[in-house]
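Protein folding task:
====================
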Amino acid sequence: MASQNRAEKMEETRRKLIAAGRKAFADKGFAAASMDELTAQAGLTRGALYHNFGDKRGLMAAVVDQIDTAMATKAQAAGQEAGGGWAGLLAEGAAYIEMALEPEVQRIVLLDGPAVLGDPAQWPSQNRCLQATIETLLALEAEGLIKPVDIEALARLLNGVALNAAVWVAASEDAPATLPKALAAFECLASGVLKTAPPPAGETS
């Protein structure tokens, strides 16, 4: 029982620090966020941050993982709503790119995230996304819908297109105006893997 209570307390501490870090990084950006201020906001000490995450960068990694995982979940829901398959794959990519309009996503995941944590392809959240894309593409391959190409390579490039499109939207001076350009280009590039052109919206092949 004591060990369970200790584990619960440790998990609560992590949740508090992640929530405080998420707010600080969204409001001020990673560089300007003060460790003393964010730990005080959580009612904790710097020692708690060091113990749980090593340093501010470690906390940033946890915050990015939380937000990016939620983004992937939301994108997958959009794919399911679109009916899965090819339409679902496009809907997932579009939903992910559209989230670049959200201020928290812009600053933490798409702008500060790569600058602080390095190549997004190495993030755990992006690797989980990659596996989901691979599964979808394998199903499409089994149905004979896509060209014969290495599935992992294809998944990495499609995910990279969506991520870089989102980064472009987030960094642009007029994100709402950039978004439709990014979405159109994503669909154009992604559709190149199909054996035949997809039917017009509302029609079936």
Observations:
- The longest helix spans residues 2-28.
- DSSP finds nine helices and no strands in the chain.
- The mean pLDDT is 91.
- The domain at 1-54 is CATH 1.10.10.60 (Arc Repressor Mutant, subunit A).
